[in-house]
Amino acid sequence: MAIRVFHFILLFLSFTNLTYSLYEDQVGLMDWHQKYIGKVKHAVFHTQKTGRKRVLVSTEENVVASLDLRHGEIFWRHVLGTNDVIDGLDIALGKYVITLSSDGSILRAWNLPDGQMVWESSLPGSKASKSILNIPKNLKADKDDLILVYSKGSLNAVSGVDGEVLWKKDFADESIEVSHIIQSSDVIYVAGFVGSSKIHVYGLNAKSGELLDKNHAALPSGTFGELLSVSGDTFVVLDEMRSKIVIIHLKNGEISYNQKHISDLTEDIAGQAVILPSRLPGMFALNINSYVLLIKVTNQGELVLVDKVNNGAAVSDSLSISEDEHAFAFVHYGDNKIHLSVKNVNDWNHDLLKESIVIEHQRGKIDKIFVNNYVRTDRSHGFRALMVMEDHSLLLVQQGEIVWSREDGLASVVDVTTSELPVQKEGVSVAKVEQNLFEWLKGHMLKLKGTLMIASPDDLAAIQALRLRSSEKSKMTRDHNGFRKLLIVLTRAGKVFALHTGDGRVVWSILLPSLRKSEACENPVGLHIYQWQVPHHHALDENPSVLVVGRCGPSLSAPTVLSFIDAYTGMELKSLSPAHTAAQVIPLPHTDSTEQRLHLIIDDNQHAYLYPRTPEAIDILKHEFSNVYWYSVDADNGVIRGHALKSNCVQEAVDEYCFDFRDLWSVVFPSESEKIIATMTRKPNEVVHTQAKVMTDYDVMYKYISKNLLFVANAAPKAAGEIGTVIPEEAWLVIYILDTVTGRILHRMTHNGCQGPVHAVFSENWVVYHYFNLRAHRYEMSVVEIYDQSRADNKDVWRFVLGKHNLTSPISSYSRPEVIAKSQSYFFTHSVKAIEVTSTAKGITSKQLLIGTIGDQVLALDKRFLDPRRTVNPSQAEKEDGIIPLTDSLPIIPQSYITHALKVEGLRGIVTVPAKLESTSLVFVYGVDLFFTQIAPSRTYDSLTEDFSYALLLLTIVALVAAIFVTWVLSERKDLQDKWR
Amino acid sequence: MDKGKGVMPSNGRRWAVDFSDNSTSPSSRDVPDPPGFSRASIDQDDSTLSRQKKDAESNWKAQKAWEVAQAPFKNLLMMGFMMWMAGSTVHLFSIGITFSALWQPISALQSVGKIFEPYKDSRVELLGPKLLFIALNLGGLALGVWKLNALGLLPTHTSDWVSSLPPAQEVEYSGGGLNLS
């Protein structure tokens, strides 16, 4: 019947729609792409000589980038791999950017103007150690400019021209923790600690690396923290009690030291002292409580307290402004403002610059500051400061104003959820419509011209501009198709942003006070973001809200932080610091009368706490008490346990929102042969349209659709590491599909000679997973579809006609339906970073897999390619049903990259959200970059395309009506004449 | 006529001839019949003539009605041939053929009365032709339905009934997973 017609249409579409692609002029219409760099770690300004106003930065997202100082735009950018952490950044020879990364084992030179890589050399070593990049000025060995790198327990001298290692000195046997490289004419001194109190100094020949002399001295006590270089040969360090400052002189390899009590310098401040790592010639900064002490080291080795700043925030490194003048910047807070001072190191009483800046409260404190100077037209020095804020954003301050800012916190998105926009209010002003009427007509005339192909190139450009800045898509109200939403993202800095899906702008942002560093919360981390309240029926006048779950520190036992945020305004509604911890958060499928979703937070002692803490919530939970289950995956021990709610907690303090669990079942995997490497469940909000799958011969297979399914992938313990570490005989992959209510294993399959990493996606009744096949040396993707056999005998048509079937009555996992699984595997070319599946409002539209490839692009692959029914020679009927002949590998069609020409650097996750329009799914991809687009896996069969010419339609209708009228009049007249004849 | 007379004076009309008046009594007329005209002879002549004529006509009508009743048979053959030509796959042509095959008998059945209207006569037995006509059209309809089924457009399979059934609700709910990290 209709199914057949539908299949026919699908078949028709399948020929036209094998590739999802867009035209060149459609780029940017529905998608947006934002480039970020992440939290800046190092910044190096171009010197005056290089002329261009640029700054080089390296960030915590392993990005090296060159930024324009005028607008903050990225000139060039390289995103290194996730394990390729940048340790050092500097400029060599005035034309190369040198980066040291991967624990000091990779040294790279990039061309300064365009960022092309010039050379790369690897510096292997066995010992893990601190890595130091030192680019001495005017140190040459056989005309080569040297770059000194200490890494992996050895000192390397690398040629700046071609990256060749000229000499190498191994310190691996010396058990020395090298912390400084000092260069004086032809001798290089390497200083470091052995233990915490013995300081060793080695003198090396700069040209050959030959060991010249060796010296050591024992300090009277241990030390705390890092050794800080004050001038060429003077160092300061704190002693282990953090009460004394030890000053160490290394004069030509000789070590001498003296020490001084901090209390001698200042009497009224007591507390734990920390030396700030700012490099100032002849000075250093000491942080005690909220005070920053600036202490000068005289040539005689005496310490003089120069200044004491309350509420000090950050101190920059020094900057040489002329021959022997050095300036540095420091900021402190006061009167809701930030006071930036630039001072000359030698002339303390004179301020080179003093400015007050107002910075948005939502940016938090200043984390780091980098200062740079420029020569004004009157030959005086001007200064600009680059500030890294607590929310990881980057600001450039010049002349007391913020010149530009970058929201680089968005490069480290942790979790994403969405919210609807407010409903449009009644009463749109007429004036606005009238004003736009002419524009509207003009736009449509242009479009009409385009359709009729009579548009000039200028007109075409105007059409394109009109389409791109269509104000419709960035409105702040809900639209009919559900394309406009708010993407609410939580970043690693603890800041929550709301991005508009239309153009990607930040609608609001909030630096959560509860996730800021404080004494009570040392290392706050944002974990997840949940939809807390989604009003649609009963509580439409209330704003939706989201729940942010955070934790003070990485361990499970760290205190929990809960924060509730209004999704429209970005205000924190309330924040809680409950006494229990949060190991898991389970959003329940029930909501209370104000549409607040019930959540169970499980602590590390296996108690469950119900939120919201209202009596109504308890009533709802009591009602569903026996149907709420919980499972925990213990990946370390290879155990999956199932639990059920038992009773209220037995504790001293009575808490009726606290519940105990009883253990129901456990699945213990043999630890000698299996290790859990990946788990996956269905998305809780996924909508499935039908439970039946129709086969070619009108037969029906019933899908086993349960939300309580868990996909588990186990690898051989030996093969749990990287690819290439084991031989195929030692590697296997075992996959399970479990029912998480009863603990029943529905399906188990072993892939011999295969290993992880496994990326999986679970949707409806199928799982698709990606892994590596060691025997074939290729990646593979497999699909497993689960069908319910116990329903298969529902074959009598008359029972359906009369409605006498029980296929839609509620089912229990305890009924233990008999299931069968069908699976098939295919080769796949790419390695994969993330897999997701499209989701639509009603689940009718066919699905596409979205594969985040290693090239940081997103590939859309029809689910039809992963169908266990595929055979080498499908029959005619099967072909009509859209079954593709089986091939050994999945095709990669270049047009089906939904990111088209763009790259989402450092891709980490893909989120799909259904639009209200059934055909369309919204896709948000995050990594270092952000990307958003809409995709229609079966094309937009339920709406006209965006470039549909309504004017043409209108014109046609008018013409038709006119024609009808004219012909009617003519025919009437003719009739009359006929009658008279 | 009475009415005509009544209003005559007021209209100022002097005389009127009613052509529709065919009463035999000349006394009721103002104007006498023309000489040589006999009303009675016409009527007599007419009745004998018309009887013969009517017999012929009813025969002719009966014959015609049977013909009309058999007409769908040709149509049926034609339709069968077209259907065979259309094949068994669903496409525009076959759907068009099938729907016209369904529509023709239905519209014919709806207008059975109208089709046999011209042959309606008290002396003509129309039941037979009508029944044949209906039977043939039902045959055509059956052919259409059979074709529809052959194309797979009839809900005769389980799949047609379950394909839109939503998945059954689950009683239990389970959540959890790896610990948050």
TrEMBL record, chain A:
<feature type="domain" description="ER membrane protein complex subunit 1 C-terminal">
    <location>
        <begin position="763"/>
        <end position="980"/>
    </location>
</feature>
<dbReference type="Pfam" id="PF25293">
    <property type="entry name" value="Beta-prop_EMC1_N"/>
</dbReference>
<dbReference type="InterPro" id="IPR058545">
    <property type="entry name" value="Beta-prop_EMC1_1st"/>
</dbReference>
<dbReference type="Pfam" id="PF07774">
    <property type="entry name" value="EMC1_C"/>
</dbReference>
<feature type="domain" description="EMC1 first beta-propeller">
    <location>
        <begin position="22"/>
        <end position="408"/>
    </location>
</feature>
<dbReference type="InterPro" id="IPR015943">
    <property type="entry name" value="WD40/YVTN_repeat-like_dom_sf"/>
</dbReference>
<feature type="signal peptide">
    <location>
        <begin position="1"/>
        <end position="21"/>
    </location>
</feature>
<feature type="transmembrane region" description="Helical">
    <location>
        <begin position="948"/>
        <end position="971"/>
    </location>
</feature>
<keyword id="KW-0472">Membrane</keyword>
<keyword id="KW-0812">Transmembrane</keyword>
<keyword id="KW-1133">Transmembrane helix</keyword>
<dbReference type="InterPro" id="IPR011678">
    <property type="entry name" value="EMC1_C"/>
</dbReference>
<dbReference type="InterPro" id="IPR026895">
    <property type="entry name" value="EMC1"/>
</dbReference>
<protein>
    <recommendedName>
        <fullName>ER membrane protein complex subunit 1</fullName>
    </recommendedName>
</protein>
<comment type="subunit">
    <text>Component of the ER membrane protein complex (EMC).</text>
</comment>
<comment type="similarity">
    <text>Belongs to the EMC1 family.</text>
</comment>
<keyword id="KW-0325">Glycoprotein</keyword>
<dbReference type="InterPro" id="IPR011047">
    <property type="entry name" value="Quinoprotein_ADH-like_sf"/>
</dbReference>
<keyword id="KW-0256">Endoplasmic reticulum</keyword>
<keyword id="KW-0732">Signal</keyword>
Automatic annotation (TrEMBL), chain B:
<keyword id="KW-0256">Endoplasmic reticulum</keyword>
<keyword id="KW-0812">Transmembrane</keyword>
<keyword id="KW-0472">Membrane</keyword>
<feature type="transmembrane region" description="Helical">
    <location>
        <begin position="81"/>
        <end position="106"/>
    </location>
</feature>
<feature type="region of interest" description="Disordered">
    <location>
        <begin position="1"/>
        <end position="56"/>
    </location>
</feature>
<comment type="similarity">
    <text>Belongs to the EMC4 family.</text>
</comment>
<dbReference type="InterPro" id="IPR009445">
    <property type="entry name" value="TMEM85/Emc4"/>
</dbReference>
<protein>
    <recommendedName>
        <fullName>ER membrane protein complex subunit 4</fullName>
    </recommendedName>
</protein>
<keyword id="KW-1133">Transmembrane helix</keyword>
<feature type="transmembrane region" description="Helical">
    <location>
        <begin position="126"/>
        <end position="146"/>
    </location>
</feature>
<dbReference type="Pfam" id="PF06417">
    <property type="entry name" value="EMC4"/>
</dbReference>
